[in-house]
Structures are given as structure tokens and as C-alpha cells.
Amino acid sequence: MFVLGAISKKNYGALRRRIKLKAAMQVVTIGNRTDVPPREETREGNYFVSNYPPFSFWKPERVNEAVDALNRAPVRDTPLGVYVHIPFCRKRCHFCYFKVYTGKDSSEIESYLDAVRTELALYADKPVIGGRKPRFIYFGGGTPSYLSTKQLGGLVDEMKRLMPWNEAEEITFECEPGTLTEGKLEMLREIGVTRLSLGIESFDDGLLRSNGRAHVSKEIERAYTFARSVGFPQINIDLIAGMVGQTEENWRETVRRGVEIDPDSVTIYQMEVPFNTTISKEMRDQGLDVAPVADWQTKRAWADYGFSEYRKAGYTVTSAYTAVKDPAKAKFVYRNLLWAGADMLGLGVASFSHAGGTHYQNEHGWEGYIDRLGKGELPIYRALTPKPLERFVREFVLQMKLGNVERSYFLDKYAIDMNEQFATELGQLRDEGHLTFDDHGVRLSNQGILQVDRLLHRFFLPEHRNARYA
User: Fold this and answer.
1) pTM, entire model
2) Confidence class of residue 32 from pLDDT cuts 50, 70 and 90?
3) What letters, b where the CB count within 10 A reaches 16 and e where it falls short, cover 191-225?
């Protein structure tokens, strides 16, 4: 097992050899050819594409663009969503790259929640809101379920007063299983949560410990049973393929148990090692170039196995990361609206927003965020207003993650023919077996969807290629 702060280069090499041995046993099928292609080691850096243009192009000197966007009326028929970042955790996972804090006391948490309420109050008066009500609300983290019922109740009451939720189609709440009680789950249902997302990641206690997770498997079972009894419309579980120390055997067991509990939806992620994780820091400290996790071919094969088992159980795969039991009920509203250009107000430290055609991010430090709101000003740190072609590329690459992209959508919205704009790139990916395309649109193959984040960079405009993503 990889133990942060204690791994030696000798032990690291032994772990890599064990992982490579497992990887060598993975057979990958491409078209009608079966072989073992060259391995792609997992290295430090961002793999997952969550926005465009890349975050590294967002600049502090462009903050005035965000201010101007907030002071304009909204573009007609643009949906609105709200994201709330709750940055508190019992422990920091070794693979986590989000802004999180451990050990904050109740007074510090209250000061943070006061700042979030103030931030939303400032937004509520901006012209960009224009009387709109949110179509989705998303509580992410960190660990939103770390909050007490009293803290959560005070936050939600004020949010509903400032921006009523009566038009919200989806209210998502992320949870760490060990922080849940039956009483807290009942409150979450009472405040309107429609999609409860449990960060399970693995059912193996050894893996959970070595990757820095705070919960254990018995807490998963208890939390899931409570959640089912409360009656949430959608319970989602998160699983990660390729955690530190993972083997094919314990991955298959995690998938088996994940299918067995019968969630409404599942998200399966392939582990990456972004620059600000504990794992990446340990790698730099020890001069290591390759991360102590499975290579990308192995992770894709494991994710493929996971989705295939859910398909056998009657689920439908609806994106590169998700499978749902009933597509009519589990729609992932926040994802679908965001990937089609919705406005989203990101509340909280380091949160990302998109409003009035401009992307921007909040102050990424605790003091800066709290202090600026204490002065009655929005804590915007950096911004970027994409050009029309960049907005087109953004929606195209994000919708590629769904596995299907409609040509007519972009012709109607941007007057751009994606088949012409990306003729070379689409042709290359078709020849490689990753997709097909015609007058109706693009359809990714199974192998294409499993590695879509790696393929998306081909569609970046020249000035954004070969640049640091975040």
C-alpha cells in the first residue's frame, strides 16, 4: 500500500512493478484487433476537462469583465443555477484537488456560512439575475454533509429567501457516508434535496484508508440504508477506478457491491493526480515522475468493466462517467444545463462561475474570501470572457462527454457547422476508431467515450493547446 509521507523509492518501485504486472494482463480490443498497446503511465497533471478555455487563461486583470457581465440583463432564455462550495472535511483525501479545510471549529464554519449568505445577497440585486429563479442547486465540497443540521438549516433558509427554489428541477447534495445520520438525511429531504450523491469510491477498507478517505465500508451500508428509507428521488454513488493500491480483484468486488446496492445512478471516475494533491506533492518531494496508481489503459479497462456490469443489471450509460437505472428519472440536470451554456453562480471560496458570457473564479484563500465579503464586495479573483468561437468550442467539447453531439444544435445556436470546423480532427478520430460522424452529428465508440478527456484537446484552438490546463 502507498502510505503518504512514508513511501521509499524502493517501495515505490515495487508497487509500480506490481501495478505494471496487473496492467500487462489487461487486454484491450480496438476494432477487430486485440493486443496490448504501449502503456500510458499516470503522471502529475490535470486529465479531466471541466471547462474551456483552460483555467490558466483566466486572469486577475480581467475581473472588470465579470463585473460588467453581472451588471447586464441576462441573455433571454438562459437557465440559471447555483453552486455552493462547502469546503470542510473530516480528512483530506490524498487524491483531492479541491479547496478544502480540516479542523475548522464551529465559529469559523459560521463565519464562512455568513459570507456565503452575504455573497448570494449581493448577487440577488444584480441585473444579471433579472428575476430568474435557479433551475438547479448543487451543494459540493469538500463535504457538504459535514455541516450540522442547524448550520445547514440556517444556510438554506436564507438561500430560499433570497432566491426561491420553487422552479428548481434538481437539488444535489454531496455526502461522505461517515457524516450521515438518519436525522440529517431526513432534514436533507425536507429542504428539497432530490439527488443525494454518496462519495463511496471503494468498498475496500484498506484502499479507503491508504487513499485518505475518512469513512469505512460499514458506514456506507448504514448511510445507504438510511437514505433509502427517507425516500430520495435519486441516490447516486461515486466510484473511482485506479485508486492507490487498487487491483483488478478488489475493483471487481467494489463494482459487484456497487451493483448489488442498486443505486439510481452511478458515476465512475478514473483517478488522475492533479498538481495540488497530496500524492503529487509526495511525488515532487521524492523526485518521482510516475504516480503510484494504475496506468490509463488499465483504468479504462476497469471503468469499462464497471459500466458493462451496470449495463447487465439494466442501467443505461449516459455519459463518459455515468450510468442510470431509469433515464426518465435520473437526468443530471445540472450537468446537461451547464454543458449547454447555462449561467451558474458559484458561492464560496475558490468557486467557479459563468454568468452573462463571462467565466470567473472567487478568491482561493480563506482570508481573502471572508475579508472581501466583510467589506460588502463580491470576492472575484480572476475572469475571462470567451469569444463566440471559444464558447462554441466549450460546449462542443463538454457535450462530447455525453457520447453524442447533435450537429443541428450548433448550427442553430452558433451558425457554425461542427463537421466543417473540425473536419480534420473528426476525420482522424474516426480513422482511429474513436467515433463516427455524419450529417446528424457525432457518436463516440465505446473506446472513444472511455478516453474522451484525452481526445478533447484536439479540438482546442491553437492558442490553448500545449498550455497548462489549470
Assistant:
1) 0.91
2) very low
3) bebbbbbbbbbbbbeebbebbbbbbebebbebbbe
The kind and range of the H/E element at 199 are strand 195-201
Collapsing DSSP to helix, strand or coil, 392 comes out as helix
Q: E strands along 47-87, which residues?
A: 80-86
Terminal alpha carbon distance of the chain? 29
d(CA 109, CA 93): 20
User: In whole angstroms, how far apart are CA 231 and each of 36, 186, 196, 234, 262?
Assistant: 46, 9, 10, 9, 14
* Span(s) in the chain for CATH 3.80.30.20: 57-338
Q: Where are the alpha helices (DSSP H) in 286-438?
A: 296-312, 333-338, 366-374, 388-400, 407-414, 418-421, 423-431
Question: What b/e string do you get for 446-461 counting C-beta neighbours within 10 Å, with b at 16 or more?
Answer: ebbbbbbbebbeebbe
Q: How confident is the model at residue 80 (pLDDT cuts 50, 70, 90)?
A: very high
Are the beta carbons of 421 and 397 closer than 8 angstroms? no
Query: Per the CATH hierarchy, to which homologous superfamily does domain 57-338 belong?
Result: tm_1862 like domain (3.80.30.20)
Q: Is domain 387-470 classified as CATH 1.10.10.920? A: yes
Q: Report H helices in 264-406.
A: 278-285, 296-312, 333-338, 366-374, 388-400
Question: Can you give the length of the chain in residues?
Answer: 470
Which of 290, 247, 255, 293 lies closest to 94, judged by CA?
Answer: 293
CA 430 to chain CA centroid, Å, is 27
* Structure confidence by residue, pLDDT tens digits, 153-188: 999 999 999 999 999 999 999 999 999 999 999 999
